[in-house]
Amino acid sequence: MNSPTNQVYPVIWHNNAVSLIDQTRLPGEYTFVEISRSEDMAQAIKTMIVRGAPAIGVAAAYGMYMGAREIDTDNRDRFLKHLEQVAQMLRATRPTAVNLFWAISRMMKTAYETLGTVADIQNSLFHTAQSINAEDLQTCQAIGANGLKVLPTKPDKLCLLTHCNAGALATAGYGTALGVVRSAWSAGRLARVYADETRPRLQGAKLTTWECVQEGIPVTLITDSMAAHCMKQDFIDAVVVGADRIAANGDTANKIGTYSLALVARAHNIPFFVAAPLSTVDFSLADGSQIPIEQRHPAEIYQVGETILTPGEVEFYNPAFDVTPAALITAIITETGAFSPEELQNHREKQIV
Ligand code: MRU
Hints:
The protein is globular. Helices cover 38% and strands 17% of the residues. The protein is built from ten helices and 16 strands. The strands form four sheets. The chain has a seven-stranded mixed beta sheet. A four-stranded mixed beta sheet has the order 11-8-9-14, covered by helices on one side. It has two domains: 11-139, Four Helix Bundle (Hemerythrin (Met), subunit A) (Up-down Bundle); 151-350, Rossmann fold (3-Layer(aba) Sandwich), CATH 3.40.50.10470. It binds 5-S-methyl-1-O-phosphono-5-thio-D-ribulose. Residues 51-54, 97, 164, 166, 170-171, 176, 203, 242-244, 254-255, 320 line the site of 5-S-methyl-1-O-phosphono-5-thio-D-ribulose.
């Protein structure tokens, strides 16, 4: 049995403000950015100081509370109107991860359903943000436990491949895909994690390896293009990834490169798991074709540090996410259990809205 050592919490409420681990500086620097204004929270989400679907949701919930306390009126209707503007500003930060929209909707629902004064509403909003944070941590731990039940039973100690960072840094703590890794590690069922570097922003190289090293989990970094080769060499027993938005039929948007990983996993008969909270499921979308895909600045692919990689005449395409068809997914691991994509609909009523 292995026990966790260093807990990582990317979004911490203290002294009436939020401390965010600055994920743009890891692994070189482990520093915090203090945020106390809603506008700064929106900027932190946009610039990826905080990133990863559930962590963005938690951060946005606190951003909503910050916005609520910035509104200077005792009039309920005027307050709610201004709060809608704060919600709009936060929604406009990143389009793909649905947890952002889910958390903001939950905060707006709290505001509309709280009777009493503006101060009462502000108070309720604070408590809802705290709940979203605390629930996500518990949810990730449940995902970890449920994941352990569906991992291959052979060999005794597994090698798991993951993509991007779906760890403590991407959630309230513990992680989704890395939550499964953590629980396998604690149970003595993990030999090693293979981390895709995850071009272009390198969340795998910079964040996933950092998290594993914090806990002494053996980790091997590979470039994205090495995954198929590693599978062919029999290095990989299962793939576990996170999700940014899952459509009602199980089609899953996650970091760019996830789809090709699912295809090569299928070609090698290796199980491919998606680990995500039910808040990541967008039951309003029938399938993945309707998931909005964030397009990011081309500099992420034509520039490394100060070095420009390409000649001037090149055109660029830099989608941040892709959609893996449900048919390539062995199981979706959630806080309520692990099930096939077709069974997702049965869990609809368990989603907190
Ligand atoms: O662009 P990012 O770094 O926010 O993308 C993160 C991912 O794609 C994660 O895999 C996903 O959000 C799941 S996090 C538990």
